[in-house]
Amino acid sequence: MTTILKMNQGVRAAIKDFLRHLLETGAVHAVFTLRKQDSPNVVSYSLIADPEKLDEATPFYPVMPGNAGGLLSRITLNESFKDPVAAVLRPCELRAFVELVKRQQGNPANIVTISSICAGVSPLKASAQWESDQQVDEYWSAISNGELPPNIRDSCRICEHPVPMGADIVVPVAGEEEIDSKCSFLLNSEKGAKLAEGMPGEIGETEQEVKEVEQIRSFREKQRSELATELEKTVAGLERVIETFASCTSCHGCRAVCPICYCQLCEFDSSRSELKAQVVETELRKRGGIRIPPGTLAFHIGRLAHMAISCVGCGMCSDVCPAEIPVSSVFWKVGKAVQELFDYTPGRSVEEAIPITVFEEDELCEVED
Amino acid sequence: MKKGHLLPAQEGVSQAVAGFLKRCLEEKIFDAVVAPLDSHAGYNYVLLDDGELLDKVVAMPPVMPVQGAKAVQSLTHHGNSKKIAVVMRLCEIRAAVELSKLRQTDLENVFFIGVDCSGVIPLPDYLERARDKPKDTELMLRPLCQVCEDFSLAGNDRVTVVDLHVGTMGLGDSSALLIPSSAAGEDVLRQLGMDSKPVEEVNQWSTKVGVIRNERRKARKEALADIKKKVSGLEGLLEVFSQCIECHNCQSVCPICYCRLCFADKGTSADTADDYLQRANVAGAVRHLPEPLLFHLGRMAHMSLSCVSCGMCEDVCPVSIPVGRVVSLVSEETRGIFDYMPGRSVEEELPLARFELEELTEVEDV
Amino acid sequence: MKKRIGVYVCECGPNIAGAVDIDRVLEAVLSLDGVAVAEKYGLLCSGDGKKYLVEQVREHGLTHLVVGACSPKQHELTFMTVCEESGLNPFLFQMANIREQVAWITPDTEKATERTIRHLKAAIRRVLYHTALEQKEIETNPDVLVIGGGMAGISAALSLGSSRKVYVVDKRDALGGKALKYEKSSPGMANSADVVENYLRGIETDENIEVLTNTNVEEVRGFFGNFLVKLRENDAESDARELRVGAIIVALGMDPLDSEVLSEYGYGKIQNVYTSLELEQANVDGKLGMSGGGKPKSVGIVHCVGRKEAGYCSEICCTVGMKIACYLQEKFPGIAVTEFYQDLSIPGRGAQVLYEEARRAGTEFIRATNVQLSESDDKIKISYERDHDKTEEKPVDMVVLLVGIGPPADAEKISNLLSVPLGKGGFFTEEHAKISPVSSSIEGIYLAGCASGPKGIPETISQSEAVAGKILAGLVPGRKIETEAKTSRIAENLCMGCQTCLDVCCYGAISYNETRGICVVNEVLCKGCGNCAAACPSGAASHQHFTSRQVYQEIAEIVK
């Protein structure tokens, strides 16, 4: 059971009112959320301290220009915010931030998290072409019709965790048919409840998992099994893995935007990963030729080995891939398999240690003699 | 007039070039060859010494997934003792030359075979449509290809590092020209018993190239004027780059950007959380840092002098920023100050590495 | 470990106290993160002031020190010594100039106070990013290599031989250089060959000096105090010999400007046209006269040959011209000598005397431009423009061309070997033309004599002795030398081996390691100029005391 604040307002206006309330009462000194830039239809995460500037804010805008969890980690890398800040994040962004905090790559102190029961985001390549609010309106119409919006990231279609974990305040969006006239804020923590004091609306108690959420879950489950079947056909087995990643151009964009990839200099960009003369000789001898630059598959498998355990399936990687490789789907699938081995859910809680740092005597017995 | 060897190409230019390269390997003129091959993954550069693989050679691939200079770099960064013939477009050869000035490529044993290039299709368009319909001529070329003047060696004194050039324009489908343009190039033809004469086809080729070049020149002027308007003033710059999500794809595919860790990834100017908050207090609202413009301007300061306008950067930008055109514009103006042409010759020193006493006097105090 | 910064503002008498509200400044900085104590003091550079600081560091267990006072140029070293005395690494210190940069530039106390607060905050912010740097001490070899066995080389060797081993290397088969070719040298007209012979005898008898004639320098590696030199005899078949020395003296001398310039004057085409050096040699050999053996009745001495092309005056030729006039008048009494000069350069105590003597003996001095020689009957016709308008002619039996002094033939080769750059005229460049004329920019490599520019023997000897002095003081046998602590460093994992840093290093401190494909800084040679850090696009090369982050943080705080 959790405290709920119900409002007779559409969610897009309500969240802005709420953020304004937070700033005006001084409950927080600033708000970290999406905000329109000078260019039309361009949004970017921003830190807003002036309540007037909230007019430009667009929380829940269906675009993820960067995983906010990764952005917050960079901001709080060396020290936390000294004053309270409210951050509006999607569930996967919050989970990414938690995974980074576990690795000393971010400081959660003084951050109040506001998340949503997420309906997904549009791929960047599509949103970069938007010339009006039409697609955004279509997005919200679909939600009002109780549907998952069309044209969202593959990773969003199959998302297993649309309900945030550990957020102070959760705003149901996906599946809410009256989202343009009514909405509610689930106050999941004391911090969250305190912030809502003074906001107009009805306070009550509710269950977390309600009918709408179940609907969204089952919808996505269907998408997941469809994708799983498809992946089976296109990615399973060494031959097909090679085929899938064959068009990779080694831009490493997937790594650059991945919130979990925090290394300043990736192993695969270091001198250790350069083409060695002996390898050239061997390949010429064995096969008469070698593709240059080489090593596309090694990069992906290596990156999986390093970060799959914490992959939150946000889908930033597929969005930036210039070769249209379904990176997020492959990484989600492998990530899930690895995570299930340890019964580990990335981002579930800061206290849950990363499996690689925990030694269990009786573990992975199936690979022992 | 240039001399050339007319290469019969009944089965297409690629086959003719493949045949030529095979002979070179058989007669041990080269130890190995680097050329674009048509593989299940599209078109990729392959280093090979097995003549059979040459059956898959494509002399003029319709797409450029990797800038050829990067292929040469990965192969020769730590030196190279094999005699290698490299088949690439002129912009890729020029970039390899620029990299040699930065000790990122070793061109001593590299024999460059340039190819007439009519431009490439942007990678995303190719992957979406052209892969299944290779003859779809409705697809537009990369914006920078549309305005490229250095696509052929004919009448081009801005590119001097090619040893042998494959001329195809203006010759119809069944022949190609091998134009030797260095002593090494002439020597190879001689070794193969291939004559090199001022044949009529050379004229045809030159003329056709000249026509295309004139069109491109005009188009370039318009395109640059257009982009100049878009980026003029701080507002213009901010607007053009406002979409940027700092994925750094442009930097990682750029052949000139050779740094292992880009200055922009070093966190040098990372604000503390407190500083960021203070900025927000002062300005009311601050976009998350670092500001993308810092990355782009810094990158241009570092590499624009050597930009070969290949357009890789624009291909890979996930939010369709016309970054290649902006850098090409800046490049034209910055290298104009030093009368410098990237990749023109190995001996031409990088302007930033060369001290001239009498230079840039216009910015000195009178 | 928790950072505890101590901030001390010097009143500097009335200089700062009278212009800045120091109490307000202290209050402002005390609130900053990491600041443990903020105090003011009357005169921090005084004996008491320094003692006070040492006590403060110890009392408060300070980890960093910030001082707001005068210019670092004045007292940075003072306070760094204070740090050392108190047990604090001297590089965990930052000084803010609030006197020259604030108190002394405005009478407005309000502005001065505000500005002082900014400066101090910036210094406090920056010092948080400082790292403790250590100076190193290295052993040195006191021996010296002298390249070139002319006057410069042998006089330097003689000054040094008493305290260490000196190797004098010359590619020719005997020492002595050009001075041996002069019978008399000005001023004083002493017999210079005798002088040289004296020196050479000194060299022979000094056990510490080893002479290696017919020998070339093939390779030089290392740095001040620790050079490794490879020598090889002219006969290429012989083995190389390796020497270890601590300092190198470039005393290669000069060669006259090349014959292209001379041929414009008909040299080599017209009979009886000689260069000044040839005439000197003929004089020493007793063969002064015309080519047929006859006695010249008239001589034209042409000054400034090659001066315009070279772009500099060779300093001594005018004196040489007058000296030659004296020879000729002595050997051929009654001979008519005419000196065709552009500008007369007769500096110093002796040259004027020579000039007057020459005039008294009947030498004519004509200020002439556009001098041209041609054959006419049996004589040489000199045509010239007197005073820039009248064209005149003079027939003479013999012409002496006072050809300018050029760099030694091996200058480029040795310049490349040592990384000492060649400057105007192709001569070796000194570290500073006015205040450091005998040092090169490479520590441990010195220049003496004509190798660094035209000069006469007195100046040459001055330079050799100056070089010897520097070596005697700087390379004391048994003493170690301290290296610069604020050096650059190249991060191995980030370097791509483009060698841009190497190209811009003026001190030869960066080398390229082929096996690892990266550039490496020699911390002993590095002078901390920061060129490499500025040139490196990715920041793989960074200056340890001026990292991008330190500089950025300081600026960010100043402009807040």
What does this protein structure show overall?
The complex is a heterotrimer of chains A (369), B (366) and C (560). Chain A has 369 residues and is of the alpha/beta class. Chain A is built from 14 helices and 9 strands. Chain A has an 8-stranded mixed beta sheet with strand order 3-2-4-5-6-7-1-8. The relative contact order of chain A is 0.14. With 366 residues, chain B is α/β, with parallel strands linked by helices. Chain B has 2 domains: 218 residues, no CATH class; 130 residues, no CATH class. Chain B has 13 helices and 8 strands. Chain B has a 7-stranded mixed beta sheet with strand order 1-7-6-5-4-2-3, sandwiched between helices. The mean pLDDT of chain B is 92. Chain C folds into 4 domains: 129 residues, Rossmann fold (3-Layer(aba) Sandwich), CATH 3.40.50; 179 residues, FAD/NAD(P)-binding domain, CATH 3.50.50; 146 residues, 3-Layer(bba) Sandwich (FAD/NAD(P)-binding domain), CATH 3.50.50; 62 residues, Alpha-Beta Plaits (2-Layer Sandwich). Chain C has a 7-stranded mixed beta sheet. Chain C has a 5-stranded parallel beta sheet with strand order 10-7-6-14-24, covered by helices on one side. Chain C has a 4-stranded parallel beta sheet with strand order 2-1-3-4, sandwiched between helices. In chain C, helix 3 crosses helix 4, helix 6 packs antiparallel against helix 18 and helix 10 packs parallel to helix 12. The radius of gyration of chain C is 31 Å and the shape is elongated. The model of chain C has no long low-confidence stretch (mean pLDDT 91). At the A-C interface, loops of A face loops of C. Strand 9 of chain A pairs antiparallel with strand 3 of chain B.
What is the topology?
The complex is a heterotrimer of chains A (369), B (366) and C (560).
Chain A: E1 2-7, H1 11-24, E2 30-36, E3 43-48, H2 68-75, E4 85-89, H3 91-102, E5 111-117, H4 124-127, H5 134-144, H6 154-157, E6 169-172, E7 183-187, H7 190-196, E8 202-206, H8 211-235, H9 238-245, H10 253-257, H11 277-287, E9 289-291, H12 296-307, H13 316-320, H14 327-341
Parallel strand pairs in A: 2-4, 4-5, 5-6
Antiparallel strand pairs in A: 1-7, 1-8, 2-3, 6-7
Helix pairs in contact in A: 2-3
Chain B: E1 5-8, H1 13-26, E2 32-39, E3 42-48, H2 68-76, E4 84-89, H3 90-101, E5 110-115, H4 123-130, H5 143-146, E6 164-167, E7 175-180, H6 183-191, H7 200-230, H8 233-241, H9 249-253, H10 273-283, E8 285-287, H11 292-303, H12 312-316, H13 323-338
Parallel strand pairs in B: 2-4, 4-5, 5-6
Antiparallel strand pairs in B: 1-7, 2-3, 6-7
Chain C: E1 5-10, H1 14-17, H2 22-30, E2 35-41, H3 47-60, E3 64-69, H4 72-85, E4 93-97, H5 99-103, H6 109-127, E5 137-138, E6 144-147, H7 151-160, E7 166-169, E8 184-185, E9 190-191, H8 192-205, E10 209-212, E11 215-223, E12 226-233, E13 241-245, E14 247-250, E15 255-256, H9 259-263, E16 273-275, H10 276-285, E17 298-305, H11 307-310, H12 317-331, E18 336-341, H13 348-360, E19 364-376, E20 379-386, E21 390-396, E22 398-403, E23 405-406, H14 411-418, E24 445-447, H15 457-474, E25 481-482, E26 488-490, H16 500-504, E27 510-513, E28 518-521, H17 531-535, E29 541-543, H18 548-558
Parallel strand pairs in C: 1-2, 1-3, 3-4, 6-7, 6-14, 7-10, 14-24, 16-22, 17-18, 17-22, 18-19
Antiparallel strand pairs in C: 5-25, 8-9, 11-12, 12-13, 15-23, 19-20, 20-21, 26-29, 27-28
Helix pairs in contact in C: 2-6, 3-4, 6-18, 7-8, 7-15, 10-12, 12-13
